[in-house]
Amino acid sequence: MGGVGKAIRSPEDIMVAAQLAAALEVSAWPKPGNVHRIADLGPKTFERFLAGSLALGPACLEAARRGLLVGRGELEKASLGLGRLIERAIADDGRWQGAGPTHAGFAMLCVPLAASAGFLLGKKVMVSVPNLRKALGMLLRATTVKDSIHLYRALRKAGSSKLGRLRPDALLPDVLDPKAEELLAARNLTLWRVLELSSSWDLVARELSRGLELCARVGFPRLMAEFEEHGSLNAAVVNTYLALLAEAEDTHVARTWGLKETPYMPDAILRGRGMARQVSERARKVLELGGAATPKGMEAVQAMDLWLRSLGLNPGSCADLTACSLMLALLTGFRP
What CA–CA distance (Å, rounded) separates 44 from 312? Predict the structure, then answer.
């Protein structure tokens, strides 16, 4: 049985933590509505998600190394290059398998988290969840307009059909606007500011702008408690995913449902919130039965999986937060 292992010691350790977190998340089954070891999502198959999980490594390694230099005082925070590294992670993900990027949301989380862990190593400070959260907030606040331009390029590379279009009166330029980069520069919109402004309609952006609040308060402790109680990492990951889904309305679900009525954001999110609430309520009921840790709970998990697939709904944002919770655990000593 796994448990507490040795603390991370190098940027290479941080890279493995990111890769392993992505691979463990996608392997857990049956995560309702998402890719897992016995279910695909169209061309985005389980195997392609595994390939994408490993392909995130080089960008996370570079982020960790640069974070280390910032921690040592050998590189300015503003020169860290988080936007470029997120773009690299998403591009590498798409380059190593045939379905396009599979981990865009997690790339937005794991690259800054890798840099934060590297920063703590450089400072020779304990790699703990509170310290990682503080470092993450500090590094994100130091981002520049160049970082936000790279983020926009990364999102275009991701090629999601669920992005929608931002209303013309939105405070941010639309990702697909040919003049987006020019507008970001003209309005001095840093990566941090982009995350703040989009946090009302995007769960991953909200999580970053709040210093991984849900992962730290719900995901990480639930993962540890479930694993300690049941000894099954698979059950722990599935139930962590359900706990996050029960706590937060998944904006990927809301966006998908709302886009049936309007192409504009954040209007589509508002139109789809009712369905997102239904999904959260069902996750709560499944957890009350024990989720993936009990026979009755597993029946309910599988039924929820079929229900979401029949509606074409994929709570992908909570899957990203589940992987991030796993990465927090791995960085702070957990081993499967």
Answer: 14
Residue pLDDT, tens place only, 3-50: 556 789 999 999 999 999 999 999 999 999 999 999 999 899 999 999
In this prediction, the residues of the chain whose per-residue pLDDT falls under 70 are 1-5, 160-162
Q: What is the DSSP letter of 36?
A: B
Which residue type does 291 have?
Answer: G
Rg, Å, the chain Cα set: 19
Taking the model in full, what pTM does it have? 0.96
Distances in Å between the alpha carbon of 46 and those of 99, 150, 161, 173?
Answer: 11, 28, 20, 34
Q: For residue 221, say if its preceding peptide bond is cis, omega within 30 degrees of 0.
A: no
How high does pLDDT run on average in the chain? Answer: 95
Question: Maximum Cα–Cα distance for the chain, whole Å?
Answer: 57
User: In CATH, what number is assigned to the domain containing residue 188?
Assistant: 1.10.4200.10
Domain that holds residue 151: 3-335
Q: Determine the angle formed by the axes of helices 220-230 and 233-247, rounding to 10 degrees.
A: 140
pLDDT tens-digit map of 285-323: 999 999 999 999 999 999 999 999 999 999 999 999 999
Q: How many whole angstroms separate alpha carbon 147 and alpha carbon 144?
A: 5
Burial of 10 (0-12, 13-18, 19+ CB in 10 A): middle
Helix (H) or strand (E) holding 265: strand 264-265
Q: Which residues on neighbouring strands pair with residue 39, listed in sequence order?
A: 36
**230 φ, ψ (degrees, to nearest 5):** -105, -20
Structurally, how many domains does the chain consist of? 1
**How many beta carbons lie within 10 A of that of residue 161, not counting itself?**
7
